[in-house]
Specification:
The protein is 43% helix and 14% strand. With 229 residues, it is of the alpha/beta class.
C-alpha cells in the first residue's frame, strides 16, 4: 500500500504533514522512504487526573496491559521470582492461565479494570513495569503512570527507551533479560524515597510534555506548517 501511494504522489502533495508519536517512529518512517521534512513528532496526551496525594502510601509493582507473548509478562514473573516484591497485574489475554499457573504467591492477577480503577492502581504503586519484547508505539500506560507521579521501569526498546529517562523518571532494561529487570527493580526499591523522587520527576514531565495544553500547542504548530505548504 505504501508503494502504491508513493507512485501516486500521495505523500508529496502540498500541505501534507505526517505525525509520528516518537522520534524513533519518525526514524522508521524515514528509513521506509518518507520525506523526513514532512514528519512531525507529537506524542499522545491525556487530561490531567490531578496531582497524586504525596501522603498516600505506595507499595509494590504494577503491570497494565494485554497478557500476550510480546508483552513480556513472563519475563516480569521471572524477574520477581525469589523476591517478596508485590506485583499486581491488570489485564486479560491468551496467556493469563499459563501465567497464573507459574506465578509466585506475591503476584496478584486483577483481570480487566476500568480506567478509573487503573489510575487508582497506578497511584498506589511504587512503579509501573512495561517489559515489552517488541516495539510499542506510544503506550498510554506510560503517560497515565507519569500523570499519577509513578515512575516506569521499561524495556530499552523502540519508543519506550525514548519516553522513559533512566535514573530520572524510571529505569530501562534490555528486553527479555529477567536478571537485568530484577536488578532495575532492586535498584529502585533499595534507596529510600528513590521511587518518590522519580515519580515527582515523572509528574513534571507529564505536565511539560503530555498535558492537553502542550499537546494542543504542538498540534497547532503542525497545522501552521501544513497551511504554509
Amino acid at each position: 500500500m505504501i508503494a502504491q501511494h508513493q507512485r501516486r504522489g500521495t505523500w508529496t502533495r502540498p500541505g501534507l504533514r505526517l505525525i509520528a508519536l516518537t522520534q524513533f517512529a519518525r526514524t522508521l518512517f524515514t528509513q521506509a522512504g518518507f520525506d523526513a521534512g514532512r514528519i512531525d513528532v507529537k506524542p499522545n496526551f491525556m487530561a490531567d487526573p490531578g496531582a497524586p496525594d504525596p501522603a498516600m502510601p505506595r507499595a509494590g509493582l504494577l503491570y497494565v496491559g494485554r497478557l500476550s507473548p510480546e508483552k513480556g509478562v513472563g519475563v516480569l514473573l521471572d524477574a520477581v521470582a525469589g523476591t517478596d516484591v508485590p506485583l499486581r497485574i491488570v489485564g486479560e489475554g491468551p496467556e493469563r492461565a499459563a501465567l497464573e499457573a507459574r506465578a509466585p504467591g506475591h503476584v496478584s492477577f486483577l483481570g480487566a479494570r476500568s480506567r478509573a480503577e487503573v489510575l487508582r492502581e497506578m497511584a498506589n504503586a511504587q512503579a509501573l513495569v512495561v517489559p515489552s519484547l517488541w516495539y510499542e508505539g506510544f503506550p498510554m500506560v506510560v503517560v497515565e503512570a507519569f500523570a499519577q507521579g509513578t515512575p516506569v521501569i521499561a524495556s530499552e526498546i523502540g519508543g519506550l527507551a525514548e519516553v522513559v529517562s533512566a535514573g530520572k523518571t524510571g529505569a530501562l532494561a534490555p528486553p527479555g533479560d529477567a536478571a537485568a529487570l530484577r536488578n532495575r527493580i532492586a535498584e529502585l526499591l533499595a534507596v529510600r524515597d528513590r521511587a518518590a523522587a522519580w515519580g515527582q520527576a515523572a509528574r513534571a514531565v507529564y505536565l511539560a510534555r503530555y498535558a492537553p495544553d502542550e499537546n494542543l500547542r504542538l498540534l497547532e504548530a503542525i497545522y501552521a506548517r501544513a497551511a504554509a505548504g
